[in-house]
UniProtKB/TrEMBL annotation:
Top-level taxon in the UniProt lineage: Eukaryota
Residues of the whole record sequence present: 91 to 373 of 374
Catalytic activity, as annotated: alpha-D-glucosaminyl-[heparan sulfate](n) + 3'-phosphoadenylyl sulfate = 3-sulfo-alpha-D-glucosaminyl-[heparan sulfate](n) + adenosine 3',5'-bisphosphate + H(+)
Disulfide bonds: 224-240
A Gene Ontology term for the protein's cellular component: Golgi membrane
Ranges for domain Sulfotransferase: 20-229
Residues that bind 3'-phosphoadenylyl sulfate: 29-33, 112, 120, 223, 245-249
Subcellular location: Golgi apparatus membrane
Gene Ontology molecular-function annotations: [heparan sulfate]-glucosamine 3-sulfotransferase activity
Coiled-coil intervals, chain numbering: none
Protein name: Heparan sulfate glucosamine 3-O-sulfotransferase 5
Membrane topology term: Single-pass type II membrane protein
Coarse class of the protein's main subcellular location: Golgi
Organism per entry: Allacma fusca
Length: 283
């Protein structure tokens, strides 16, 4: 029965591209791809294949909502369409722009321990070793995160993006907290199912995802997933994210890590206050 009742979502004849009822606003390197792909397992969720960057890029925004809609997936009446563009979180104009499109939209924000996020961001851009990159040697992480006087370099964008409380404030100036659900990205890595169940509930979806849709793949070192029975979208079998997700991080000097943790601590406490949840990030 579950199989039959689920099947109609995928075979509905009247599917049209719809503006999103939910947007994953960021943050960069916190598991935004894993989150949207895992959510897409749900029969009532259709995702945009790529990051649309409608609200954060003025040239795209100028093209108007019809352009945006064309970049969203086709859905039936009982499905919702979602997209993720991680730079929405930190771009000043975005909260107002999204609010102007749909003031009751649901927003998902996924965060990770701020220092790990900085290292992940650095690794995405420079790789794990300091081999020459486009003919030039990569800067060392410690030279980017610290200034010559030893203070934390807030001019480095990767440092700024982890100041979650600063950016979240702009969203809370525009949206009520009940419309923003915050996901612990480290918990999503350790055990995705409870996080997704919470999202399912937040979005008002039928509870369809199950623990056994997620498998820990010890070769990859991360969870992978299998689509639900009856889902004819996408390929069958176990699906893992590609090698650009779950990269090995370079070793970082303990002194640098503790300096960064101390720097982030007051911002983290403010963030816990704003969200009403203690993420327990090391001080
Ligand atoms: P690392 O590559 O630094 O480990 P985003 O998609 O927002 O860029 O986030 C990338 C991060 O998603 C990865 O950072 C990885 O830790 C995390 N992630 C969460 N769940 C994952 C999964 N199941 N497979 C691969 N990466 C996952």
């Amino acid at each position: 029965d579950a199989l039959i009742s689920g099947a109609h979502y995928w075979t509905q004849p009247f599917k049209i591209k719809r503006l999103p009822q939910c947007i994953i606003i960021g943050a960069r390197k916190c598991g935004t791809r894993a989150l949207i792909d895992m959510l897409n397992l749900h029969p009532q969720v259709e995702k945009a294949a790529l990051e649309v960057h409608f609200f954060d890029r003025d040239d795209n925004y100028a093209k108007g909502l019809e352009w945006y809609r064309q970049h969203l997936p086709e859905c039936s009446e009982d499905q919702i369409s979602i997209e993720k563009s991680p730079s929405y979180f930190v771009t000043p104009e975005v909260p107002e722009r999204i609010h102007a499109m749909n003031s009751s939209i649901k927003l998902l924000l996924i965060v990770r321990e701020p220092v790990t996020r900085v290292i992940s961001d650095y690794t995405q851009i420079y790789g794990t070793n300091s081999k020459p990159h486009n003919g030039t040697k990569s800067p060392r992480l410690e030279d980017l995160v610290l200034q010559s006087d030893g203070s934390v370099n807030v001019h480095y964008k990767a440092i700024r993006i982890s100041l979650y409380s600063r950016y979240l404030q702009r969203w809370l100036d525009v949206f009520p907290p009940t419309q923003i659900h915050v996901i612990d990205g480290d918990a999503l890595i350790r055990d995705p199912y409870p996080q997704l169940r919470d999202v399912e509930r937040f979005l008002g979806l039928e509870p369809r995802l199950q623990r056994d849709n997620f498998y820990f793949n010890s070769t990859k070192g991360f969870y992978c997933w299998r689509k639900l029975e009856g889902d004819s979208r996408n390929e069958t079998g176990l699906h893992c994210l590609n090698d650009s997700k779950g990269r090995r991080h370079p070793p970082v000097d303990r002194y640098i890590v503790s300096k960064l943790r101390r720097f982030y601590n007051p911002h983290n406490l403010r963030f816990y206050d704003m969200v009403g949840r203690d993420f327990g990030w090391p001080e």
